[in-house]
Amino acid sequence: VIMMGQAEHSVITTCAYCGVGCGFKAEMKGQEVVRMVPWKDGQANRGHSCVKGRFAWGYATHKERVLKPMIRKHITDPWKEVSWDEAIGYAAAEFRRIQEEHGRDAVGGITSSRCTNEETWLVQKLVRAAFGTNNVDTCARVCHSPTGYGLKQTLGESAGTQTFDSVMHTDVVIVMGANPSSGHPVFASRLKRRLRQGARLIVIDPRRIELVSSPHIKADFHLQVRPGTNTALLSSLAHVIATEGLIDEAFVAARCEAKSFKEWRDFVSLPENSPEAMEEITGVPAQSVRGAARLYATGGNGSIYYGLGVTEHSQGSTTVMAIANLAMATGNVGREGVGVNPLRGQNNVQGSCDMGSFPHELPGYRHISDDAVRGEFERDWGVTLQPEPGLRIPNMFEAALAGSFKGLYCQGEDIVQSDPNTQHVAASLAAMECIVVQDLFLNETAKYAHVFLPGSSFLEKDGTFTNAERRISRVRKVMAPKNGKSDWEVTVALSNALGYPMNYRHPGEIMDEIARLTPTFAGVTYDKLDKLGSLQWPCNGEAPEGTPIMHIDEFVRGKGRFMITKYVPTDERSTRRFPLLLTTGRILSQYNVGAQTRRTPNVVWHGEDLLELHPQDAEDRGVRDGDWVGVQSRAGETVLRATLTDRVQPGVVYTTFHFPESGANVVTTDSSDWATNCPEYKVTAVQVTRVSQP
Ligand code: SF4
């Protein structure tokens, strides 16, 4: 731990890593952070933290940070340091040139779930008002976009239903496709406390995660589902509930659409959805499915927590809807201790979606084709907005290769390392004429950029993040921006250079605009956040101090809607050529593509991505523990070091994606969710062979 002496003052702010959104007290000596102390009054963490938030802030002052704007005409040219004015003027001129030569829709922007709500708001506003297109998307496209779609269809709102505190009132917990011990550690410790008090646990995961069996905790059921068959497994759970008389008939009659419920009940009751019929597909013994279904439906308050192991599939949206169906059928929505709870990976995934970063939705999840809503924005912003949805990120890549998309403003996302099928992404970026990257470091995407605008870390900015429980918390500037400008000021300058003036003196004024134009944020102000510590949206006239639990008396959409969620096999099935299924996850000490955690030298970090391989599969291939192995898929090939473990089942391999040199996304394919294009990172058919050291 870096200890620089006694603190002189402290500033309360919010962790910039995962979607738990822990509050921290940054203890300062002048412009230097002495230590980060978990804030005891933080409503998401109540004085707790994990190793990342507590210790991994050193990247903010890392020597590799780029602090000067840079431009270059061709991506093979060396970078040239220039003034802010020159860089922004060059970017604006290039975007306008492209639009004149190739049309208004030849440019677009990507917002970041790492940035604040205010910064995200400005980027989508710039794209819509200054570029005049709806080609704006967010990195949430590649993680929780199915959550937004699935929960909106069924419950009426694209967000989790509870607070983290709610878990202390639960009796039965389903954790599905998530590994909270590594991904959401502070929530995991609260969950474990409840489990030690006697709550029951069902884990649905292809891998034996720590929660399945750890000191003092043992899951009642581990449904070790085969990757790609989540929807089939949920259908079999629903079959048991529907055919064994376990439905909460009173709740369903009072709260849900009768027609959709009847159709759903008829569907899940079909013999083909029984656990016995599905066993062949899911690999999960029917008796375990029956036991787990009975436990969830009859064990008291039942809550479901899920992560990217649910969403990052070709049926990601279907699976989210199947989860909501289960919760409604058993009456497990609308009170303490129950609910549907997406565990968001990044600090502001929820916020970046709330802020209208989607090509089809204005802030607050309102469709761009809605004339009345669009009219409100047009009057406030003084522009005409396009009524047609724009391009999603994968569509931008395709359009670039087709020659119709030429310019991209990318704030705070390393799309080359984080998006699937790296070769395809790289080829798309290489086909563009002006890429503006705004980031802390020269990341993999910057290799294809023409303009680099230095970004600022969370320690250098004011604003808000919204965590996985819809909790809006203040981010406060603890030091002056090392690059001379906060990220929001850069977007404002770019918009002004494009000829669409933006005038804000402080991010608080951006929040005032958000509140003015977004009904779920109507009651949010910085003053109120300072006074109350945080606010969970919806926060408006009806709920001036926010809404901890949603859907209490009725669903946001009125009656809850059951959706038919038929299992459709993914194309990523094991074949003779690619007989194993690769799935991915995280480790505790690293964060996503590792841009920050790999640059934090003050803790001993795990140093490489490993391939977990079952001993039986290893023996078949002559692989020993520690050997280097080639991993081939239909997209590409990478090399990793093997570790042999029975945490994975035979036929399944697993790795993490924190290090660019291991390149997990070189092998992931462009298979994606049917509704949202969220990539199918969690299932890739691969072959593994022993190779000599790379
Ligand atoms: Fe930060 Fe998440 Fe760790 Fe909390 S649990 S300190 S938000 S990384």
From TrEMBL:
The entry's keywords: 2Fe-2S, 4Fe-4S, Iron, Iron-sulfur, Metal-binding, Oxidoreductase, Repeat
One of the protein's GO biological processes: formate metabolic process
Signal sequence bounds: none
Entry GO terms, CC: membrane; oxidoreductase complex
GO molecular function, one term: 2 iron, 2 sulfur cluster binding
Statement: the UniProt record of this protein carries the keyword NADP: no
Coiled-coil portions: none
The EC number(s) this enzyme carries: 1.17.1.9
Boundaries of every 4Fe-4S Mo/W bis-MGD-type domain copy: 8-64
Enzyme class: oxidoreductase
Recorded superkingdom: Bacteria
Family: In the C-terminal section; belongs to the prokaryotic molybdopterin-containing oxidoreductase family.
Listed name of the protein: Formate dehydrogenase
Species in which this protein is naturally found: Achromobacter agilis
